């Protein structure tokens, strides 16, 4: 900074204000300082700047799931990519944290409260997960992607309309004349699949259809979807449609239906949830799927976090993002 100031012919304080875009610097002085910084190859010392601003310039993205499952989950990988891009757009570095075991929990909390990051974007979908409650004691702002282990008050949440998405899917199937509409539900220890199952059930009842024994739970994996579809066909060989709670499980369901000689959509119509760009349009036939955009969710989370960093008194809120139905050949 001393060198930049001398090179520009201004005081050190003027150079500092110019580089920090302070309004109380003349345009001429600012141009001289910026030119000097470019010519000298100057860049601010982040450690020194942090002592003054009390900001690190880093944001944690915390995923509370086993690492192996995260890397095989198209939705979570999309979240990681979106986190990197959205944070880069606001000039922040992303610190990625996987938190799975109890040992991970204590390490994660210690890291977050150790002054290494300015805030956290947290994805902790399991209702029994202790992480959300532990994070409420932190002095940094936290925004949750999806419901925070069932905590409804005092937290900032950005989620999708999971129940409404399921309603769109089932109403589409009913409108096309389907009457034996089964579902492959996601794990019932998570809020999103619970809401999707509830949406399926309520919509069937509203249409005067019986949902009894037409649901099978799976684990958001391809094999889970295949096995669940086999179980449903064994119990109800006359089913004519299935709503699947994720694209990945729907891929497994399609394979089972094909192996069983069921034509899609003539014999069985299939609608899934996620509308993942690398899965849903690429299937044979292409999947009708409830569209949700992870980048839209992460963008809203980053926006909320930036507001919290500027205003610690921002009241907690639940932001529910709308979804839509991308109709393709599977239904």
UniProtKB/TrEMBL annotation:
Q: Which residues form the HTH lacI-type domain?
A: 1-53
Q: Name one GO molecular function term.
A: DNA binding
Q: Does the keyword Transcription regulation apply?
A: yes
Keywords from the named record:
DNA-binding, Transcription, Transcription regulation
PROSITE patterns linked to this entry: HTH_LACI_1, HTH_LACI_2
Q: Which Pfam families match?
A: LacI (PF00356), Peripla_BP_3 (PF13377)
Return the protein name.
LacI family DNA-binding transcriptional regulator
């Amino acid at each position: 900074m001393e060198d930049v100031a001398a090179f520009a012919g201004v005081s050190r304080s003027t150079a500092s204000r110019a580089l920090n875009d302070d309004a109380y610097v003349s345009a001429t002085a600012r141009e001289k300082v910026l030119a000097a910084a470019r010519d000298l190859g100057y860049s601010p010392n982040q450690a020194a700047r942090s002592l003054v601003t009390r900001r690190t310039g880093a944001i944690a993205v915390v995923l509370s799931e086993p690492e192996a499952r995260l890397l095989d989950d198209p939705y979570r990988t999309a979240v990681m990519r979106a986190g990197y891009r959205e944070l880069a757009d606001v000039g922040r570095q992303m610190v990625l944290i996987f938190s799975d075991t109890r040992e991970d929990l204590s390490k994660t909390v210690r890291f977050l409260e150790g002054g290494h990051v300015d805030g956290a974007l947290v994805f902790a979908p399991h209702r029994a997960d202790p992480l959300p409650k532990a994070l409420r004691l932190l002095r940094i702002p936290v925004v949750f992607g999806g419901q925070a282990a069932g905590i409804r008050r005092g937290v900032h949440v950005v989620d999708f309309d999971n129940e409404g998405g399921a309603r769109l899917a089932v109403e589409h199937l009913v409108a096309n004349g389907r009457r034996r509409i089964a579902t492959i539900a996601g794990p019932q220890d998570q809020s999103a699949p619970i809401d999707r199952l509830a949406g399926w059930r309520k919509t069937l009842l509203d249409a005067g259809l019986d949902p009894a024994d037409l649901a099978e739970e799976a684990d958001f994996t391809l094999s889970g979807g295949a096995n669940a579809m086999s179980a449903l066909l064994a119990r109800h060989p006359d089913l004519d449609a299935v709503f699947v709670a994720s694209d990945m499980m729907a891929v497994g369901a399609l394979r089972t239906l094909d192996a069983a000689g069921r034509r899609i959509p003539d014999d069985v119509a299939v609608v899934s949830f996620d509308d993942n760009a690398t899965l849903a349009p690429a299937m044979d036939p292409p999947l009708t799927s409830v569209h949700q955009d992870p980048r839209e969710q992460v963008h809203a989370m980053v926006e909320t976090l930036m507001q919290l960093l500027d205003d610690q008194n921002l009241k907690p809120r639940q932001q529910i993002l709308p979804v839509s139905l991308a109709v393709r050949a599977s239904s």
